[in-house]
Amino acid sequence: LWRLAGRQTPLTITPAGSLLLKTEPPEFYRDLALTLEVGDEISLEMLAEHLESVGYERREPVEMVGEYSIRGGILDVFPPEARHGLRIESFGDTIDSMRHFDPASQRSVAKTQRASILPLREWPANRRLLAELAEKAELENPPPPGEPFPGWEFFVPLVRPRRHSLLDFLDRGLVVIDEPEQVRGAAERLWTRLAQPATRNAPPPEANYFTWEEIEERLAARDRILLRELDVEGPERPAASFHIPSRPSVAFHGNVPVAVAEAHSLVEEGHRVVFFAPSTGELERLADIFQEYSVPFRVGIEASAGGSDYLRQRAYVAVEMADIWLLKGPVRRGAVLPDSRLAIFGSEDLFDRSDLVAQPPAPRTAAAAFAADIADLKPGDYVVHATHGVGRYLGIREIRSGEQSGEFMLLEYAGGARLYVPLTRLDLVQKYRPVGDATPALDKLGGATWRRTKSRVKARMRDMADELLKLYAERQMAQGHAFSEDSNWQREFDEAFEFTETPDQLNAIREIKRDMERPQPMDRLLCGDVGYGKTEVAMRAAFKALGDGKQVALLAPTTVLCFQHFETFKRRFAPFPVRIEMITRFRRGKQLKKVLEEIAAGKVDIVIGTHKLLQDDVKYRNLGL
Length: 625
Hints:
Elements: H1 2-5, H2 16-20, H3 26-30, E1 34-37, H4 44-53, E2 57-58, E3 67-71, E4 74-77, E5 85-91, E6 94-101, E7 108-112, E8 114-117, H5 127-137, H6 156-159, E9 175-178, H7 180-194, H8 212-219, E10 224-227, E11 247-248, H9 256-268, E12 272-277, H10 280-292, E13 298-299, H11 309-312, E14 324-328, E15 335-337, E16 342-345, H12 347-350, H13 366-374, E17 382-385, E18 389-401, E19 404-412, E20 418-422, E21 429-431, H14 449-477, H15 488-495, H16 503-516, H17 534-547, E22 552-555, H18 559-572, E23 580-583, H19 589-600, E24 606-609
């Protein structure tokens, strides 16, 4: 709502329930975020008080959304919808600097001059408002005066009625309703549930929701498009119906020759063919590809003020009478319109990059790592506390002290000693994972055993770290070939993959390519189960090496695997001018001699074999991978 009120979102998609929800006016949400700039005058104490009132909790360190901490003149906070936390440093009451930080490592990642901190709830929880809401709610067990109670936000309309809806945030925008009858049905089902409250003291539904009839009255004054899959009879009929025959465009999955052939075929049938690219850089890439295949085209961006000089240099290809257009625009998927003689191909029809833009998952924090284990943790299991060592998990206990209560993890130690760990500090506890079937001995609370164990392990880790530092220092000093960045052919090869890459595959490909582009020799171990795409990662690395004129050798443990890899590589590299050979115990005599001579002469690009590849008689002209 804050983004909508500030006109930051050109498109809003919402279900029926959210459209029925009553809201404050747009200006209320526009002023909801606290916007800070370097040089602003505000004390960290006042800022912390504000954060507490809008739902933030004080934690040290800050690892999750909704947490903040203060250390001297530094305040860390993790706002919602933010990828990183915000670190505010002050000098007196003046903001001296602001930086984003990684909650996993607590390291700063980027400076910023301006930041907005969104609240975690709609209304600041001041004591006067909470006391008034508790009185209106008529609770059976009221909280202490001025303290929050579960669901208090839903009672706010009882003291401050709401008269606005999501439509008030859209100015005079167009409203598109997908399947109007189904939307109406969803709204009516919501009101049926609201009419049967789960608790006696629930606020009346009309305090928080409009009826569908009220929303329809508001919609009547707006431009609307009603989408129906079938032309069913209903109370509302569109003013005019248009039938536009169309069919989906072909997805080429990076197969450029097929795309070029399809474009030629459509032009011969009298169609105008349009290829869309999302950016000027991608448009330049399309121009390069069509030039390589000698395809005449016109570039739509040249008519705009910000036309690309790079594209104008290809005017000898971009002829005036061409029926193939290259346009810049945010069209992902296209369509063919037979009656209009128009074929449109979106950016993802030619090169499907929908999975490549996905952000890699953020590293898990210690608390998140434990949360993954807690599902199968049962009483009697062994755990390790960072401070007290190995203990036995006995379950979750609730402890009350006066009017306050909290849940704790109960751990048992040697001699029957017990330790209660607050659930807010689960980051200190990990599940014990034994080597084999050995049963660990419980540590003694306050004893020296655990401290000695940690000291001994730290000493061994330091020794291992020294050895690794020496090894990696030697590797860093070594100089190898720094491969070029991905070429158009490399991107074409990658996009021709017939399956959708897994996130781990994409991550491995990114890291391996990055290593290959460095001057230090790459040394990586890629682990994965059978059928999880290790070979595809290797083939993309091989293609990158070939792009710089290098040879590639693939070593397999058995002859059977050699044959399998040979067939896989031949099939995958078939559209490209790549020579692939195989050396196994079945190749002998003149045939083997000829292959070895061609490898030495650089006529073989990729050679696949068993341990025979390591013999002295195998000479490479320019081995790169």
